[in-house]
Amino acid sequence: MNRRRFLTAIPGGLLGLSLRPVWAEATHLTALEPRPKGPPLALEDIDGQHHRLEDYRGRVVVVNFWATWCPPCRDELPSLQRLWEQLRDAGLVVLGVNVGEDADRIFFFTADYPVDFPLLLDQDSATIDRWPVRGIPTTFIIDPEGRIAYRAIGARDFDHPRLLERLRALGLD
Question: Thioredoxin domain: from which residue to which, for each copy (predicted)?
Answer without folding.
Answer: 32-172
